[in-house]
Structure formats: C-alpha cells, structure tokens
Amino acid sequence: MKNKWNRPIVMAPHKYNGKLLTTGLCKPSTLILLGVVLMSEACGGTQTHTRPSTFATGIRERTNAEQLLIDLLTGYNPLLRPVYNDSTTTDVEMLLLVSQILNMDERYQKLNINAWVTLIWHDEFLVWDPERYGGLKGIKLSSNQIWLPQVILYNNAEEYENFLEDHIVKIDNNGTVLWAAPVVFHSNCQVNVRNFPFDKQMCELKFGPWQYSGAEINISGKGDNSVFTTDGEWDMVGLTAQSNIEYYPDDPGVPYTDVTYNVSLRRRPLFHIINLLLPCGLLTIGSMLVFFLPVDSGEKLSFGITILLSLTVFLLLLAESMPPSSVIPLVGQFYAISVVLVTLSVTASTVVVNLHHSGPTRSKVPRWARKWIIHRLGSLFGFKVKTKTEQPSKEKMKVFKTYKVNLNDNFRPLDSPPSPLLPRNSPDVKFSANRSQSQAPCHTDLKLIYKELKQIRAYFDNKSTEDDERHEWHLLATIVDRFCLVIYAVFIAICSAMITVLG
Fold first, then answer.
1. What's the confidence (pLDDT) of residue 439?
2. DSSP 282-351
3. From CA 126, how far away is CA 171, in angstroms rounded?
4. Is pLDDT above 50 for 25?
5. Of 15, 206, 26, 178, whose CA–CA distance to 93 is shortest?
6. What DSSP character marks residue 189?
7. Which partner from 14, 125, 447, 498 sits 20 to 30 angstroms from 207, CA to CA?
8. SS3 460
9. Which spans in 129-175 are helix H?
C-alpha cells in the first residue's frame, strides 16, 4: 500500500485501552517527531517526576497526584484487607456526632437521626514517600477505590446498606485513611411511653463489621453532641459510647467487636400539654357541671353524653400515636379513668332524672330513704326538710262538719254552731226548726251541694297529697344529685393524685 508520494505506509502497533491498534504513519515528519519524543523520554527516565510540560503536540505530563494515584492503585485489590501479615488486626476508630433528631415514631418504635460519622483506620498498602512526589503528603479519592471496613448499623429499621460507599476519603502518606460524611440512620428504639409526655428515652445505635471478626477488625468509638440542634420536641441529654465483644449463633466461638452508642433523649411536653392534657382536664372538670344542671332543663343527660363523646375522640387520637403494647401511658390512664367517671356521672344523672320524675302514680318515698337521705343527708347539704305535712286549719273544716247527711236522706244539724258561710238570721238555717214543713226540694239541693263540696275537698286533698309526695321525690333526687357530685369530685382528686404519684 502506497501513499501519494509513492512510498509504503509503515504500520506500527500501539496499545490503547488494553487493545493493540495499528496506526499508519503517513508522513516522514511524524516519524521524526516520534523519534524526538522517544529520545527525550529515554534521557529523562532516571529523573524524578517534575511539573508537567506541554509540547507543541498537546501531550501533557502527569501531575504528582496523578502519578501517586497510579502508583498506589496499581495492583491494589479493594476486596482484601490491607495488611502484609494476615495476623495483624486493623484498628478502626469511629466518631459519631448526632446533629438532629429527624423523627421519633413511638408507634413503630423507630428513631431517625442525622449524624456526622468519622472513621479512621490504617492501610498498609497506601504508604508513600512525599519527597518522591513533590512533597505531596495527602490525597483524596473515591471510597470505592480502596478497602473499606464495611461497618453497618446492626439495629437498622430499614434496608441494610453500606453507607461507606460513594464518598470521598482522605489518605495521608503514612497510610492513615480518614472517612467522614453526614449519614441519616433509621434504627430501632424501644420506646417506653409510660410517663408520656414527661418521658425520657434511651436509644441504642450499634455499629460493627458484619464479615470481619475481632481478630481481623477491632472497632472502638466515641460520641459527641456538641453539634446537636433540637427539632422542637426532643432534647439530647447525653451521648455515650461503649465497645463490646459479642458472640453470635451464626458463627459460634468467634468474637466480633462493635461499638454501641447510647442516645439519651428528653421530650418537651408543652405541645402535648396544650393539645392532650389541657382538653382532658377541662372536659373532666366540665363534666362536674352535669350535677348542677336542673332536671327540668332537659339537657342534663345530653350534656354528659357530649362530654363522654369528646373524651372518647381524644382517647382515640392518643391511641393512634402510642405503640400497641401492654404499657399504657399515664395520660392514657387519665383519659380512661375520665371516660369511666363521666360514664358514671351520666349513669348517676339517669338515676336522678328517674327519681325526679317519680311520683304518687308509682309509689311513695320509702321510709329508709326519707330517714337517711332526705332528713339526715339533706341536712348535711343544707336542705330544709319539713318534719310534718301542714294540716288544714279548723276554721276551714267547720263548713264541712256543720251538717251530716245519712244514707236515708235524713238531713239534721249537729251540735256544732251554724256554718259561718250563712248568716244567723237566714231563713235557710231555720229549716231545721220546722222539719214538718214541705221543704223536700231544699233538702235535695243541699244534699247535692254537700256531695259536690265533698268531691271538691277530696280532689284538693288528693292533689295536695300528690304535690307533697312529688315534692318529696324531687327533694330526694336533688339530694342524691349533690351526693353524686361530692363522690365524683373525690374520685377525680384521688385518681389524679394516684396518677401523679405513680408517674
């Protein structure tokens, strides 16, 4: 094959990306330039690496960092632990700085935190002499290019992943590797909500290598909360670290090292006091007003049932945020007790309404109720109770006792004085002196009048008796209502004191 000058084309093999390529050197000037380059490399082969120089062709020499990177990673295997002696243990130091509490899920027992993590270990294969590389003492590269201790969070609440990958590491000339990056952890946390919302929580974060035993990696750590920023609900009380040696059933007899961080948190209760405790307290106190409402208002039972439904709604909201466990928080106990007390108040109000509407049509007040509730208990609550029913006056009864009518229609006066309703000189009174005269129609009229008056008297007597009995039932219901109010207030005070003492 020839070119336009009728000269053969020289085919020279070149290596590009691991493959042999053939390139035609078309011009003599190209051959001359290539010879100059080869001679310059041969002359400078014994010298140390210097700053890059640029030729007219645009080819650039490697920098110190580039050459160092090539020298360090040539033949480096990131899957093998970087020690020359397999019996050497790699020490890994871990520093955890908790930055913020992202979420504390009490129902699902999960803690989400934002942390700054730092890991330091020694890599025996990443050591160099700075003088050979222009005094370069440190280099940064991707963590995927070197060996990583593969530290994971044991009590992870979500998908397990190697959080060390895809980050930048800093390497010193003595082989010290520094890995530092912010990480969001999702861990399990056993939440104790007994003292909610005045509770303190202790959550553990357990870190350690999964595949490397204690003979290969020894991890230790310490924690710091100086960069912590509160989220408005949780304050960090303390952060401690403890190194442990554990034995696991999947690899019996082989020790594994880990570092456990104890994160101590304290809840800020103001939000829950305003949104949970205060409404419950107001509703419980408001339920006492049920006993002050008069029965005739017709709202006694409806008011108590409304308060009961309100407490039930708040109790359901509280149950949705609490974990489904056997531990019931104190505020939940207070809500449950309040629901029970309000239910009892509604029951007591039902009894009071029933007593209030009791009357002579049903039965009379029992003697024991009249003695112990109306007279004795009523006097304690300041009720004035009449010992005897007021009797009609004698002047009012004289009219009905003046005359007597028998079944044979014999109408005769009694020995009592004449009726005050008629004047003494009235001709209607003198009919008794002349019984033989023909006054039968007058006798009949008086007899009818007497019967009517007797019925009227019996009606008013029965009405007075019914009113007295009805008043007695009303008084009994009022006294029972006040007694239930006192018992209800005492129960509220006792239950609140017990919850406070137990909490």
1. 54
2. HHHHHGGGGGTS-GGGS-HHHHHHHHHHHHHHHHHHHHHHS-SSSPPPHHHHHHHHHHHHHHHHHHHHHH
3. 8
4. no
5. 178
6. -
7. 125
8. helix
9. none
Give residues with Cβ within 8 angstroms of 488, minimum separation 6: 287, 288, 291, 341, 344, 345, 348
Rounded-to-integer distance, Cα 138 and Cα 131, Å? 12
Token duo for residue 502? 């137990």
Other C-beta atoms lying within 10 Å of the C-beta of residue 496: 15
Buried b vs exposed e over 443-466: b needs ≥16 C-beta within 10 Å? eeebeeebeeeeeeeeeeeeeeee
Token representation of residue 407: 């079944």
Grouping H, G, I as helix, E, B as strand and the rest as coil, residue 180 is strand
Residue position matching structure tokens 């691991």? 18
pLDDT reading at 363 higher than 50: yes
Q: Which two tokens stand for residue 226?
A: 């100086």
430, pLDDT greater than 60: no
Bridge partners for 168 per DSSP: 142
Query: Residue 185 has which token pair?
Result: 């952890």
Is the CB of residue 175 less than 8 Å from the CB of residue 127? Answer: yes
Q: What is the pLDDT of residues 92-140, one digit of tens each?
A: 999 999 999 999 888 888 999 999 999 999 999 999 999 999 999 999 9
Contact assessment for residue 445 and residue 410, using Cβ atoms and an 8 Å cutoff: no
Contact 113, 136 (CB under 8 A): no
Sign of the alpha-carbon dihedral angle for 96, 100, 106, 111? negative
> Distance between CA atoms of 148 and 211, rounded to whole angstroms?
12
CB of 151 closer than 8 Å to CB of 120: no
Q: Residue 3: what residue type?
A: N
Q: Which two tokens stand for residue 4?
A: 């336009």
Residue-level length of the chain: 503
